[in-house]
TrEMBL record:
Domain Cullin family profile: 487-579
UniProt feature, compositional bias: Low complexity: 17-35, 89-103
Superkingdom, taxonomy of origin: Eukaryota
Pathway: Protein modification; protein ubiquitination
Molecular function GO labels: ubiquitin protein ligase binding
Pfam families according to UniProt: Cullin (PF00888)
KW Membrane (keyword) present: no
Keywords on record: Isopeptide bond, Ubl conjugation, Ubl conjugation pathway
Bias (Polar residues) ranges: 1-16, 55-66
Family according to the record: Belongs to the cullin family.
Record-given protein name: Cullin-4-like
């Protein structure tokens, strides 16, 4: 027996299902005769069933739902659509309404299935149901109960005690209050708790230990505890900071609010503030006197003043005043007891110490004012005294390091002009003694060369080749070397003659060239260069005439140097001597004798 063709019960229904069922029933009735009576009841039942794709929820046998209904075109099957009537028919056949009927109607069923396959698929309507949620209501006393938990936690933080509520629940409690527009009230309550605690703690410091270091340690601990506690409270109420505080003008963050309260109550506890400042000043003064102090304690307390915004008014002004008094007294004492080199070293050390204090515990903004105070009291007030008392000694002793220290320190207080004037006076004074001493004029050029060499070394190493100082040296030398009009020019010519004579053959060429270069420096300062030329020409003729020249190359080198300094006209006659000697060597003596006459 052939089995009836079964249909998929999951196939979606279409509006044409009813018509297809009727056509199939008519075909089966004509083919099967009396067997059709057995199928009809089923056919009629199928026709009488409601179409599953109806959008009326009452017709689909569903309970009435009042919320919003939304249709979405999706391919997913709808649970509200019933089976196709043809499926009902096939179910009746397969359940035993007659074997003949099955065989007789097989062709009609196949035709119906082929028609269904030819139908284009239609997108199903998906029913989306959104239920209206009832607006939640807050529990009775929600704000008070939530704040009670937070209040207990805040007090536990201040008292350094454990709390039964974990941080996550506390954080969520703050979120809940903020989400229900209770942030303002929460902020005020936290502020009130913080203020009560800060006031009590600062008042507890009144009348504490007379030992300043112990008292400062108590203040430091109070401040450190406050910072730790405020950070913990801020962590719990972070959502409050990020919502209510940011959205509300003129409302400080919880951290800034805490600092403001601490500052206000520190001012109210004036004894605590004044005692703290006094203790800080005493510790710094003790350190200046050479005692060892707790620099970390100073650092923490001064950072407290900076964080509270009272560093300048409460600490810096009295600190600079005490610094002025301290170094004013020290300057007088050390100027009386020390020589200039030691005093300059002391000033240098003091400046370095104050710089270190700024790096270690003072606020960086204090550095400029502090250093200026030390410079004024130890340097600027004593510029003239330092120069009068020790400059000549340092110059005579060629104290390169001490002169360098003086130059650097004077440059800090814009006193280089005074140093330059002192240098000029020293050169003129010392040089006057060399040039005007007729008893030692034989050594005048050698002494001037040595003096100039020392000045050049000081200028390079101590004064860092300062151009203004170099010009001062030149001007002073030009003045002193012309004090005796023509005598220095004559002596310089004689000095060159001595160096170029054969008696100096033991001197190396390099040493001779160096000496001639130094002499040429003195030659530049001579105003009566014609006097030098006359004496030099006479001495050169004698050296050539008598064959006393140590080196013809050295002679020519000196003439070249003079030519570079004064031009070819100055050396024409000098160069002519060599040319004539080369051309007429036999008549050289006669010619040179003629030039000498």
């Amino acid at each position: 027996m052939s089995q009836p063709t079964s249909t998929n019960p999951n196939k979606r229904s279409s509006p044409c299902s009813s018509t297809s069922t009727t056509a199939a029933a008519t075909t089966r009735d004509a083919a099967a005769g009396s067997s059709g009576a057995a199928i009809f009841p089923a056919m009629k039942k199928a026709k009488s069933q409601p179409v599953a794709c109806s959008l009326d929820s009452n017709k689909n046998g569903q309970q009435s739902i009042t919320p919003h209904v939304h249709f979405a075109d999706t391919p997913s099957p709808s649970p509200m659509i019933e089976d196709d009537p043809s499926d009902v028919l096939e179910g009746s056949l397969s359940s035993g309404h007659g074997a003949a009927a099955v065989g007789g109607h097989e062709g009609g069923t196949i035709a119906n299935l082929s028609r269904k396959k030819a139908t284009l698929p239609q997108p199903a309507k998906r029913l989306v149901i959104k239920l209206n949620k009832a607006k939640p209501t807050l529990p009775t006393n929600f704000e008070e109960n939530t704040w009670a938990k937070l209040k207990s936690a805040i007090r536990a933080i201040f008292l350094k005690r454990p709390d039964s509520c974990d941080l996550e629940r506390l954080y969520q409690a703050v979120n809940d209050l903020c989400l229900h527009k209770m942030g303002g009230s929460l902020y005020q309550r936290i502020e009130k708790e913080c203020e009560a605690h800060i006031s009590a703690v600062l008042q507890s410091l009144v009348g504490q230990s007379e030992d300043l270091v112990v008292f400062l340690s108590l203040v430091e601990k109070c401040w450190q505890d406050f910072c730790d506690q405020m950070l913990m409270i801020r962590g719990i109420a972070l959502y409050l900071d990020r919502t209510y505080v940011k959205q509300t003008p003129n409302v400080r963050s919880l951290w800034d609010m805490g600092l403001q309260l601490f500052c206000e109550h520190l001012s109210l506890a004036s004894e605590v503030e004044h005692k703290t400042v006094f203790g800080l000043l005493k510790m710094i003064e003790s350190e200046r006197l050479g005692e060892s102090v707790d620099r970390s304690l100073l650092n923490h307390l001064l950072k407290m003043f900076t964080a509270l915004g009272i560093y300048t008014e409460s600490f810096e002004k009295p600190f600079l005043k005490r610094t002025t008094e301290f170094y004013a007294a020290e300057g007088v004492k050390y100027m009386q007891q020390s020589d200039v080199p030691d005093y300059l070293k002391h000033v240098e050390i003091r400046l370095q110490e104050e710089h270190e204090r700024c790096l270690i515990y003072l606020d960086p903004s204090t550095r400029k004012l502090l250093v200026a105070t030390v410079e004024t009291q130890l340097l600027e007030r004593y510029i003239s005294a330092i120069l009068d008392k020790g400059f000549t000694t340092l110059m005579d002793g060629k104290r390169i390091d001490d002169l360098q220290r003086m130059y650097l320190l004077f440059s800090r207080v814009n006193a280089l002009e005074s140093l330059k004037q002192a240098l000029s006076l020293y050169i003129r004074g010392t040089g006057h003694g060399i040039v005007m001493d007729e008893e030692k004029e034989k050594d005048m050029v050698s002494s001037l060369l040595e003096f100039k060499a020392n000045l050049d070394r000081i200028w390079e190493e101590s004064f860092f080749k300062n151009e203004a100082f170099g010009n001062t040296i030149k001007d002073a030398f030009e003045h002193l070397i012309n004090l005796r009009q023509n005598r220095p020019a004559e002596l310089i010519a004689k000095f060159v003659d001595e160096k170029l004579r054969a008696g100096n053959k033991g001197t190396s060429e390099e040493e001779l060239e160096g000496t001639l270069d130094k002499v040429l420096v003195l030659f530049r300062f001579i105003q009566g260069k014609d006097v030098f030329e006359a004496f030099y020409k006479k001495d050169l003729a004698k050296r050539l005439l008598l064959g006393k020249s140590a080196s013809i190359d050295a002679e020519k080198s000196m003439i070249t140097k003079l030519k570079t300094e004064c031009g070819s006209q100055f050396t024409n006659k000098l160069e002519g001597m060599f040319k004539v000697c080369n051309i007429v060597k036999n008549d050289c003596v006669v010619y040179l004798s003629f030039l000498i006459m």
